[in-house]
Amino acid sequence: MIELETEVQKRRTFAIISHPDAGKTTLTEKLLLFGGAIRLAGSVKSRKAQKHAVSDWMEIEKQRGISVTSSVLQFDYNGYKVNILDTPGHQDFSEDTYRTLMAADSAVMLIDAAKGVEDQTKKLFQVCKQRGIPVFTFVNKLDRYGRNPFDLMEELEKVLGIRAYPMNWPIGIDGNYSGIYIRNQAQVELFEQAGVHGQSALPSSVGGVDDPRFKEALGEEIYHALCDDITLLDMAGDEFNIEKVGKGELTPMFFGSAMTNFGVRLFLEEFLQLAPPPVPRVSSVGVVNPSDENFSAFVFKIQANMNPAHRDRLAFIRICSGKFSRGMSVFHPHTGKSIKLAQPQQFLAQERTIIEEAYPGDIIGLFDPGVFGIGDTLCQEGSEFRFQDFPIFPPEQFARVQAKDTMKRKQFVKGMTQLTQEGAVQIFRQPDYAVESFVVGVVGSLQFEVLEYRLKHEYGVDIVMNRLPYTLARWLMCENCEDIDLKLKSMKNMDNGMLVQDVKDRPVALISNEWQLRWVEERNPGIEFLVVPQDA
Ligand code: GDP
C-alpha cells in the first residue's frame, strides 16, 4: 500500500500541446537528455524524420511489421518518473492527438515567442480545458526575436480564456532578449555570451529585481525596463495560486529556448514540483483513486498494424489505479471476458522493452487480438465498472465513402462498423440517400488514408471516396420543438450544408465554414448548434 502510494506520488504524466514547428521535438529531446534517457541528441528527430509522408510511413509499418510510432517516453529525473505522451501533429494530426490528452494529468503548452497562440494549439487547449487539467505554458525561441511578453499574456487570456502567471520574465527590449529573470528566486540568468561557454546565473543579494548588481550586469536601460515590468507584474498581475493552476484557470508561464537549452531545466524542475501526480478518475461506481489497490486502466489509443501478414494491433492503456504486473489477468467489462496481459510493452525513447510492472500514470502497449475499443475499461478480476466514455471530438473533414464493387457491400459495412468502433473515423448517415454509403468525418486527413488502406487490406474492399466541402459538424438540439424532425426538415439556408445522423441517430448539420454557420444559426432561431452532443 505504501509502495503503491509512493509510486503514484512520483509520477508525472503529461502531453506537450503545440502547433507544428513551435519546437516540440526539440523540447522533448532536451527533457529526455536531462533524464539521461537518450544518449545522442537527434534521436527524437530521426523518429520524426521517418514520418515524412503517409506512403513512407506505411512502408515503414510494413517493413517492420509493427508500428514505429511510439506513444509515450518515460524517464527518471530527481526521483520523479516522468511520462511524456506523444501527441501526433503535422500531417498525422488526428483524433488520436486529442485522445492522448485523455490519458494525461497535465499539459505543457508550447508557444513560439514570435507567433503566439496558433491554430492547433487552440484546438488542443480546448480539450484540456474541457477536462479541467492544469496547463503549463512554455514560450519558446527566446534566443531570437519574439513578441512582447505582456502581449503574449493578453493573447492567452483573449484567445484561450486563461490567465497567466509568469514564473520568469524575458530580459531585453523590443523583442531582443538577453536572458530571463526568475521571479521566485530573484535571479537573473543570461544567455551564453560570445566566447563564453555556459549560461551565467546571477542571484540577487537583496532579494529583489531592483538589485544594483543587476543594473551593473544588464546596463541602465535594460535594467530599468526589467524593474518596471516586474513591478507591474507584482502589482497588477495575478497572484500565484496553485489551486487555480490545478483547475486549469491559471497557467504558470515560462520563457526559454529549447534549442539553446536555455530555461529548460528550470522549467522542468518547477513543472515537476507543481504538476499533479496521477489524478482520481470518474467511473460508473464513483471516483477511482490511483492508490486504490485494485488495478484499473483504460484504452486511449489503438494502433493497427499496417502489415496484412500481421493483423495484430497495439492497444495503449493508461493505468489509473493499482499495480500492474506482467501476466496478470484483468476483466474487460465490454466483452465480459478475462484477459491475460502477457506481453506488455513500454517505451523508453526509441527502445521497446517488455515490462514487468507498472503503476498509475504509466502507459503500456498491449497486443490486441481485436477485442479492445477506444475508451474501454480494464479492471481487477472480480470487480466490474467502466470509466466515463470518451467525448466526441469535432471532425473537420468529411467525405462520402462507398464500396467500388456493390457485391462487397457486406464486407464494406462490416469494415466501416469495426473501424468506427475502434475509433479510426466517425461515421454519419444521410437518411434518404439511396446508395449504401457513409459520410465519414475525421480530424486529420491521414485518417482518410488509413481508412482506405485498411478497408482494402483487412476487409478486401476498394472504396470510392468523394471529399465533401464541409469543415464543421454541429449537433442540433431543439428544446421547445414539438416535432424536431419537421423543424429540421424545414431548416432555412441549409442549401450549402447537409443534414445527417450520427451513429446514435442524433441529427447533425455539416456546414462549410464559420461564416456559413452564423448565417444558418441566425436564420433558424430555436435550434441550438452544439459542437459536441449534449449527452456525450
Ligand atoms: P515541432 O514541429 O514542434 O516538433 O518543432 P521542432 O522541434 O522540429 O522545431 C522546429 C524548428 O524550430 C526547428 O528548426 C528547430 O531547430 C527550431 N527551434 C526549436 N526550438 C528553438 C529555439 O529555442 N530557438 C530557435 N531559434 N529555434 C528553435
TrEMBL record:
Residues 9-279 form the Tr-type G domain. PROSITE patterns: G_TR_1, G_TR_2. InterPro entries: EF-G-like_DII (IPR053905), EFG_III/V (IPR035647), G_TR_CS (IPR031157), P-loop_NTPase (IPR027417), PrfC (IPR004548), RF3_C (IPR032090), RF3_dom_3_sf (IPR038467), RF3_GTP-bd (IPR041732). Gene3D superfamilies: P-loop containing nucleotide triphosphate hydrolases, Peptide chain release factor 3, domain III, Translation factors. It holds the Pfam family GTP_EFTU. It is found in: Cytoplasm. GO terms for biological process: regulation of translational termination. One of its GO terms (molecular function) is translation release factor activity, codon specific. Keywords: Cytoplasm, GTP-binding, Nucleotide-binding, Protein biosynthesis. It comes from the Bacteria. One of its GO terms (cellular component) is cytosol. Its main location: cytoplasm. GTP binds at residues 18-25, 86-90, 140-143. Increases the formation of ribosomal termination complexes and stimulates activities of RF-1 and RF-2. It binds guanine nucleotides and has strong preference for UGA stop codons. It may interact directly with the ribosome. The stimulation of RF-1 and RF-2 is significantly reduced by GTP and GDP, but not by GMP. Belongs to the TRAFAC class translation factor GTPase superfamily. Classic translation factor GTPase family. PrfC subfamily. This is Peptide chain release factor 3. It comes from Methylomusa anaerophila. The gene is prfC.
